[in-house]
From TrEMBL:
Gene behind the chain: sun
UniProt binding sites for S-adenosyl-L-methionine: C279, S280, G281, P282, G283, G284, K285, E302, D326, D342
Annotated family: Belongs to the class I-like SAM-binding methyltransferase superfamily. RsmB/NOP family.
Protein name in UniProt: 16S rRNA m5C967 methyltransferase
Gene Ontology BP, a term: regulation of DNA-templated transcription
Length: 460
């Protein structure tokens, strides 16, 4: 569909505010490579959309982004043409309509009519008719029926079948299955959890606000594992007073556990209070480390200017020095007691919080990131004193980014792997199902967190 747009011949009713917001997010993601989780809150605030409309817009925007691959397969079959032969704006409209038909309780006539009306506004009656025909074809069957027709055969390609059902690229599903290892039978549960919209996790700043007090303030629930965690059912966390005042942050509970684990690791000799966060942006873990540092001080390294600004913002009032340098050669004095390497990664473990990311990432992204991770970990080891501890973490379970990187460090550098599992046992309920050790792998379907990996290494 590459014809030039024409002015509509008749006045049509534009999309309601919620659908319009969701559609504009889809366009920003498609046209500008925007992040849906950043674009949507800004649109909702700018347009004063709240309550049920905001919740509906959120479901449509994030849900459509998450299920893009499945939706495109259905649209392609219903339209009898591949997605790349459909105008990009029209394709986003079709995705928005198809998502409502297949994965929401929206009445079919409402999903079809609102989308067709907008197609008439954006294009012309001919294109509106095309949208009408495609969506009515999609509406003639439910999601399960489409899956049975379009998904790979479960008997010959179980991973591909499960990936299609839960709207994941096959290569990502395979990476998850590889990381699960002997527990690969949990892949269906993992992908189902990864395909669901997660709760917002908050972190109360230690020494300033307790999790119980924060939960009372925001109407949330105290977290299961981290002593600082609060679960927020919905709403825009940016509107919360605690976040505006800097007494709390948005931070996945798994990330909180990773930062706390570094502070619990046993050192050889006294802790001199020199801590380093080698990949600190945007500063959530840095803030938690600094709040737990006592008389110590955290050096935060972040080369990206925007992310370095966020580190400064998120650690305001805390004992943190932000250095805008490359962590591979930061030019700082060696001898740190504790070093966190929360390395840049594919982010496969946080896909549920970044709806469009699963369709942007490619297998070719992994090797250069793994190389960077090895270099950053090597730098961290050089900067740590003998008897000090490095905690290496990623928000990806991909084996090339986790055990592969750590195995390389164990071969090349004077480090010993510690059993990281005891470091994840907070004062309350212990974190179970962490695996055989010595490393820790968190999972959304087991722990309700992002799929964080952590390894603790003692230097010398």
């Amino acid at each position: 569909m590459t014809h030039p747009r024409k002015r509509p011949r008749q006045r049509r009713q534009p999309l309601d505010p919620a659908r319009r917001a969701a559609f504009d997010v889809l366009r920003a993601v498609s046209e500008k490579d925007a992040y849906a989780n950043l674009a949507l809150p800004a649109i909702l605030r700018d347009r004063g959309i709240s309550g049920r409309d905001a919740a509906f817009a959120t479901e449509l925007a994030y849900g459509t982004c998450r299920t893009k691959g499945l939706l495109d397969a259905v649209i392609s079959r219903a339209a009898d043409r591949p997605p790349d032969r459909i105008d990009a704006v029209l394709l986003d409209l079709l995705r928005l309509g198809a998502y409502q038909l297949l994965r929401t309780r929206v009445e079919h006539h409402a999903a079809v009519s609102t989308t067709v009306e907008q197609a008439g506004i954006e294009f012309d009656s001919a294109r509106a008719g095309f949208v009408n025909g495609v969506l009515r074809t999609i509406a003639s069957r439910d999601e399960q029926s489409w899956v049975e027709e379009l998904a790979p055969d479960a008997s010959t390609d179980p991973v591909g079948h499960t990936a299609f059902v839960h709207a994941h690229p096959r290569w990502i599903a395979q990476a998850f299955a590889d990381a699960l290892g002997a527990d690969a039978g949990e892949l269906d549960a993992l992908l189902a959890s990864d395909d669901a919209r997660p709760a917002v996790h908050l972190a109360a700043r230690p020494g300033v606000l307790t999790a119980a007090d924060l939960a009372t303030q925001v109407g949330g629930t105290v977290g299961r594992y981290s002593p600082y965690a609060v679960y927020l059912a919905g709403g825009d966390p940016g509107r919360l007073q605690a976040l505006r005042e800097g007494t709390a942050l948005v931070q996945d509970e798994g990330s909180q556990l990773v930062a706390r684990a570094l502070t619990l690791a046993e050192l050889d000799g006294e802790d001199g209070g020199r801590w380093l966060d080698l990949c600190s942006g945007p500063g959530g873990k840095t803030a938690l480390l600094a709040a737990l540092a006592g008389e110590g001080r955290v050096t935060a390294v972040e080369p990206a200017p925007v992310r370095a600004d966020l580190v400064e913002q998120n650690t305001r009032g805390l004992p943190v020095e932000v250095l805008r340098v490359d962590g591979r050669d930061p030019g700082v004095e060696t001898g740190f007691d504790r070093v966190l390497v929360d390395a840049p990664c594919t982010g496969l473990g946080a896909l549920r919080r970044r709806p469009e990311a699963r369709w942007r990432r490619q297998p070719s992204d992994v090797p250069p990131l793994a190389k960077l991770q090895r270099e950053l970990l090597a730098s961290a080891i050089r900067l740590t004193r003998p008897g000090g501890v490095v905690l290496y973490a990623t928000c990806s379970p991909h084996l090339a980014e986790t055990v592969g990187v750590v195995a390389d460090a164990l071969r090349r550098h004077p480090v010993t792997a510690l059993d990281a599992r005891p470091l994840f046992f907070p004062a309350g309920e212990p974190v179970d199902n962490l695996g055989a050790g010595p490393y820790v792998q968190l999972w959304p379907h087991r722990h309700g967190t992002d799929a964080m990996f952590a390894a603790a290494l003692k230097v010398g």
